[in-house]
Amino acid sequence: MKNGKSKHVLVAGGAGFLGSHLCDALLSDGAHVIALDNFLTGRKQNLRHLEREPRFDIIDGDIIKPLPARLRSKRVKIDEVFNLACAASPPHYQADPEHTMLTSVVGTHNLLTFAEATGARFFLASTSEIYGDPEVHPQTESYWGNVNPTGPRACYDEGKRAAETLTFDFDRSGRADVRVARIFNTYGPRMRADDGRVVSNVICQALAGDDITVYGDGSQTRSFCYVSDLVDGFMRLMAYDEAFPGAVNLGNPIELTVGELAQKVLAMTSSSSRIVTRPLPVDDPRRRRPDISLAKKLIGWSPRTSLDAGLKATISWFAEDQSADNKAARVVETLAGAISAGRA
To answer: Which of 68, 229, 328, 344 sits most deeply, having the most CB atoms within 10 A of its CB?
Structure first.
């Protein structure tokens, strides 16, 4: 069990950016993995390379509804449940705020009761957004946050805060063995080009030669963790067997401004794009940097991938992804022309 052999794991949100990388890591560790996803923001292409993997299965389902019968069967053995099932970028979670809130509250409750019934350890992917626009810097786990409970980001921010409440209530009552990670900005291959995050925005605009959009004056800060480092933190935290002290920050403590990130991507892509500014979105945090002292002490974790190395890999992936999309578009256009001309 320590090295994942014979372990059966459910990953809710398994077709998403983080979820698909987690599925890869769990399979590499010897586990049997079931990915559950409703494909609202997750993509089947993120898991296509696993189609013939005998230890992997994927189920189409939404966690705000009763879990699929295949999971509720008494024959299904589950040792761990990872809850990564929620749209995580502002354009996506604000597109259907009611569903976002229900995913965090109803969905988390459904997965917690499933973990209770199966005796599985439960992992909640929470977020640094629970700190809101922080008045404490860097953010420690003991900080309660500065969140607008009625703003356009509240469906996600308050939803995740409520999800943590549910998770720790199950823990206190002895109904589930839980782990909670508060995730800070993460980037890497398989990000969606339309997710509205700063890394994907800047890279895609630079590769296309479009104007690079920077909100505000670019002085707001973020800290960026490469996806493989974050997934390593997930695995370590889930495997931690001592008394659990509460939520744990996972992120890169190296802080830089959005303007600095844009300039770095411009240089790495040799792009001729111009930087243009737009007004800051409502409730956009001015500063964001994790204190990861607890993660270092508890699970011996800290990020290892440099920003330059991570950006290089991410830029290469987006360049290949855009090239594939362009080729597909040209094929469709050619076929449509042939059909129109009566040649196909």
So the answer is: 229
Cβ pair 69, 176 in contact under 8 A: no
Q: What is the pairing mode between strands 178-183 and 248-250? A: parallel
Cβ neighbours of 7 (radius 10 Å): 18
How far is Cα 206 from Cα 272, in angstroms, rounded to an integer?
A: 8
Q: What is the pLDDT of residues 49-106, one digit of tens each?
A: 999 999 999 999 999 999 999 998 767 889 999 999 999 999 999 999 999 999 999 9
Is cis: bond before 91, omega within 30 of 0?
no
Q: What phi, psi does 150 have (nearest 5°)? A: -125, 5
pTM score, whole prediction:
0.91
Catalytic entry in 93, 131, 156, 187: 156
State the DSSP code for 103. I
Rounded distance between C-alpha atoms, residue 106 and residue 17, angstroms = 22
- Using the CB atoms, write b or e for 60-84: b if 16+ within 10 Å: ebbbbeebeeebeeeeeebbbbbbb
- C-alpha span between 303 and 100 (Å, rounded): 29
